[in-house]
Amino acid sequence: MENIHQNFRLMLHQYTEYLQACGYSEITTRSYLVDVKPFLRYLEDNGITDIAAVELADIQGYYGSLAEHSYRGKLIRQ
Q: How many CB atoms within 10 Å of residue 74?
């Protein structure tokens, strides 16, 4: 999977397996992954490579970055 930290690649793989086990279609699974990857890249760009280390301020920072890139409306509704 793309150029994402090993921890996040493993997590994405597990998330994919979870979505498939829940019966989500391949298209839905891909769509969810497309939405999650930018957040993981944001975390990595900010020195976070362990999802357990994410704090509210990190999520708020990502939310703010979406507004700057005009993605906010699409992703926030999901």
A: 10
Q: For residues 12 and 36, is the Cβ–Cβ distance under 8 A?
A: yes
Residue 75 binned pLDDT confidence (cut-offs 50, 70, 90): low
Question: Looking at beta carbons, which pairs linking 66-71 to residues 24 or more positions away fall under 8 Å?
Answer: 71/38
Q: Is the dihedral of CA 51, 21, 34, 71 positive or negative?
A: negative
- Inter-residue contact 46 to 58 (CB < 8 Å): yes
* pLDDT tens, position by position, 5-56: 899 999 999 999 999 999 999 999 999 999 999 999 999 999 999 999 999 9
Distance CA 7, CA 65 (A): 23
**Torsions phi, psi of 64, nearest 5?**
-65, -35
Single-letter code of the amino acid located at 51: I
